[in-house]
Amino acid sequence: MNIGEIARRAGVSRSTVSYALSGKRPVTEETRRRIQAVIDELDYRPNAAARALKEGRTRTLGLVIPPASLRLTDMQLGFVASVVEAAAHADLDVLLSPSGGDHDRSFERVVSGRRVDGVILMEIRLEDARVARLQQAGLPFVTIGHTANPHGTCWVDVDYATLIARCVHHLADLGHRDIALINRSAELVAAGYGPAHRALEGFAEAVAQRGLTSTALTCGDDAPAGETCIERLREDHPEITAAVTVNEAALPGIQRGLERAGVSVPRDFSIAGVAARHWAEDFRPQLTAADVPTLEMGTSAVDLLLERIAAPDAPVRHLLLTPPISLRASTGPVPIR
Amino acid sequence: MNIGEIARRAGVSRSTVSYALSGKRPVTEETRRRIQAVIDELDYRPNAAARALKEGRTRTLGLVIPPASLRLTDMQLGFVASVVEAAAHADLDVLLSPSGGDHDRSFERVVSGRRVDGVILMEIRLEDARVARLQQAGLPFVTIGHTANPHGTCWVDVDYATLIARCVHHLADLGHRDIALINRSAELVAAGYGPAHRALEGFAEAVAQRGLTSTALTCGDDAPAGETCIERLREDHPEITAAVTVNEAALPGIQRGLERAGVSVPRDFSIAGVAARHWAEDFRPQLTAADVPTLEMGTSAVDLLLERIAAPDAPVRHLLLTPPISLRASTGPVPIR
DNA sequence: TTGTATGCGTTATCAT
DNA sequence: ATGATAACGCATACAA
């Protein structure tokens, strides 16, 4: 079914049908109704490809996700969900591109086939080839997370450094003097994954400020790794009385490891961190943590992207969020020796 | 950048460029190289919209997911990941459509705007308006899960009835005579969600066959609901010594509830079910369960869909998977009273 | 082996 | 207020 057929049946020209639909020029109520009747009857919808070709825009956003074979974390999933939601709200569709390596077919299709009006990139590395590629292609984009040199790009991120620092200060205030950081996986750190590096920065700075002794560990992004990590921590650093973490996926394992070691939280050991609310609330006892506002971040990313598409030459904007730390039940005064 | 510009710079006609790219007719090696040089230099890629308009296909698949605001379950996420992966492997892009209600804008855009060559539908209800809509629109589609009347549609599903029945038989073999089913949420049951209904069927049939006494409970799809459910179960039915479940998201809560009640698994209580491997292995002790093969299902769904797109009039095909039950550590002989 | 011409379905410009 | 027509970028039937 195409617009010509509608026009024929309604006894008008194609342009009249087009204008009746868009309202961009006045159409007699009478003919408008006749056209609408035909459209309803035949269930006509403009062909998206033809419209995209003519208008030069696709009404579609690209969302670049980590390679699908890797299990997405809850946080990543939260971004996907909120981006899709926000896009749907603006009557935009979302094209998914699983892209990991630097020269990815799907990514290239999206970028250079002009299949989308703009792109949202997540899981940004400090040095990220995809960012460079998008800049070169001149395609509007917004990143969730930011690169080492963030001034030229449009992004939204959580201030991991500040949040982890706040957690450290909170624990120091409670009297803890020996604190561990349970970071993301060694692979992510090696790959220059921003949140892992910034968490470490914030940790180091706060620890130095307060004159604490500390140790920083990497930990795989899953429950078994969390359990192992706690075992190692208890063994190698028995003096440690508190930990901060940005590794939400390890939390169930951390909990299990502490339970198995007979460590009571927060009586014997305190823990705080940054995690999606879901993970924090499922922790036992519930985790004192800054809740990553995935919904707000995804929504903001779409908003920023739409602005950028509308005005590609406007100065870039950033959004660095510092959500409050929700005081729950996993932190308490340092145990008396 | 368009094909005409490439042709101009290479000193050939547009069709020659097109044929050089598609290989659908011979092109002298010399001119082919000259064209390729220009293409490489300008980083040209055919415009997807123009190609879609001309060819009548978009090289894009639609994936209809539950409304993004609801948190996707691990299993749903597994489907999304494997579908995206399989599609990427076939050089196809995936357009996401979050669709819950019956008249959804995003869904309608995808279906009637011809934005995709075919659709994969998940979270199927026994009666599903979206299935009817797709049939009416004549758009090829495959469902993950199947409706009450599955003969006219192409689908891939797990045989929940058989799997749950097998779990019941396994427990009966171990001497259990009083068994509970922990089903999905009451809302899903009320909405006619297939897996919930088929689990109940299989449960009822096996229980009847073995002459067991039983009770069937619904339980919200999250940890707290699982905990509550176990409390209720222990209180109302203290005689129950085993449970089967299809509610993976409730597993952490079920585990916590059993621990809090001082119930040792499998010494005092056995539990088995159907769950993504991840959930089964994170359960303590590890859960005896049929592992839902999300990867295989997503891949198969894409395969079926591609077949269907290639031959829309071929007879429909189904895939009803019955993965083996992995014997882990959560089931044991009935406790002696 | 290569070039020319046409049409895919829309929207926008120009003319009426 | 409406109609005719061009143009978007590509693929292909047809011509040379």
Question: What can you tell me about this protein's structure?
Answer:
Chains A, B: InterPro entries: HTH_LacI, LacI/GalR-like_sensor, Lambda_DNA-bd_dom_sf, Peripla_BP_I. Chains A, B: It holds the Pfam family Peripla_BP_3. Chains A, B: GO terms for molecular function: DNA binding. Chains A, B: It comes from Paractinoplanes globisporus. Chains A, B: This is LacI family DNA-binding transcriptional regulator. The structure is a homodimer of 337-residue chains. Chain A has helices at residues 3-10, 14-22, 29-42, 48-55, 74-89, 105-112, 129-137, 160-173, 186-190, 194-210, 223-236, 251-260, 277-282, 294-310, and strands spanning 60-65, 93-98, 118-122, 141-144, 155-158, 178-182, 213-217, 242-245, 270-275, 288-291, 318-321, 325-326. In chain A, the strands form two sheets. Chain A has a six-stranded parallel sheet, with helices on both faces. In chain A, strands 7-6-8-9-10-12 form a six-stranded mixed sheet. With 337 residues, chain A is α/β, with parallel strands linked by helices. The first copy, chain A, has 14 helices and twelve strands. Chain A starts with a helix and ends in an 11-residue tail after the last strand. The model of chain A has no long low-confidence stretch (mean pLDDT 94). In chain A, helix 1 crosses helix 2 and helix 11 (223-236) crosses helix 12. Chain A has three domains: 3-46, lambda repressor-like DNA-binding domains (434 Repressor (Amino-terminal Domain)), CATH 1.10.260; 60-158 and 294-321, Response regulator (Rossmann fold, 3-Layer(aba) Sandwich), CATH 3.40.50; 160-292, Response regulator (Rossmann fold, 3-Layer(aba) Sandwich). Chains A and B meet through helix 4, strand 1, helix 5, strand 2 and helix 6 of A and helix 4, strand 1, helix 5, strand 2 and helix 6 of B. The structure holds a DNA duplex (16 and 16 nucleotides).
